[in-house]
């Protein structure tokens, strides 16, 4: 900060000793030390705040560039998806037209009561296990021995149940 050497500090101390006096010099030196410490902390806080604001600005710029890149990628994907969807629709229209023509010709060959009726098959449903049945299959004596609660009890009732006899 300042270019103060040992000789300059000795000169300042001698002048302070003459001007302030030996009785007040320790108290003034402590006050000057605390003021310098506060000033250094203030300067350090200002530097940290400036660094934080610079980093924040850099992060905002980086965020903007990433967002713009993401928007560009999203727009290109959307355009490619719409092109693909158009191509798919055109291809399926051609296939549907061919399928309708072949279906109409095959329907005419079978007649009105043909064997081409499709049967509806229900979706598979997983047989779930009933956990209440499993819990009920454990014997009551085993539940009591292992400490499984079988009856619901409120917190106040539980405290009253386990309270020592001298407090009842």
Question: Which labels suit this protein?
Answer:
single chain, 168 residues, mainly alpha, 2 domains, 72% helix
Would you give an account of this structure?
The longest helix has 86 residues, at 25-110. It is flat and about 115 Å long. The chain contains 5 helices and no strands. It has 168 residues and is mostly helical. The chain has helices at residues 6-20, 25-110, 131-136, 140-146, 155-161. It has 2 domains: 6-107; 136-167, no CATH class.
Fold topology:
Elements: H1 6-20, H2 25-110, H3 131-136, H4 140-146, H5 155-161
Q: Quick summary of this structure?
A:
The chain is mainly α. Helix content is 72%, strand content 0%. It has two domains: 6-107; 136-167, no CATH class.
Would you report the number of β strands? 0
Helix/sheet category: mainly alpha
The description of the largest β-sheet is: none
The quaternary state of the protein chains shown equals: single chain
Fraction of residues in helices? over 70%
Provide the domain count. Answer: 2
What fraction strand? under 5%
Strand and helix order = HHHHH
Compute the number of helices: 5
Q: Which parts are unreliable, with pLDDT below 50 for 5 consecutive residues or more?
A: none
């Amino acid at each position: 900060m300042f270019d103060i050497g040992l000789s300059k500090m000795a000169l300042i101390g001698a002048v302070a000793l003459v001007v302030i006096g030996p009785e007040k010099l320790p108290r003034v030196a402590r006050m000057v030390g605390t003021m310098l410490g506060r000033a250094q902390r203030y300067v350090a806080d200002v530097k940290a705040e400036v660094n934080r604001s610079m980093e924040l600005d850099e992060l905002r710029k980086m965020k903007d560039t990433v967002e713009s890149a993401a928007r560009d990628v999203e727009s290109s994907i959307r355009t490619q998806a719409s092109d693909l969807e158009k191509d798919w629709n055109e291809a399926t229209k051609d296939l549907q037209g061919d399928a309708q023509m072949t279906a109409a010709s095959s329907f005419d060959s079978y007649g009105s009561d043909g064997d081409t009726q499709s049967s509806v098959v229900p979706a598979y449903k997983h047989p779930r296990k009933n956990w209440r049945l499993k819990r009920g299959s454990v014997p009551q004596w085993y539940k009591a021995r292992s400490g499984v609660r079988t009856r619901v009890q409120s917190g106040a009732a539980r405290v009253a149940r386990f309270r020592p006899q001298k407090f009842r």
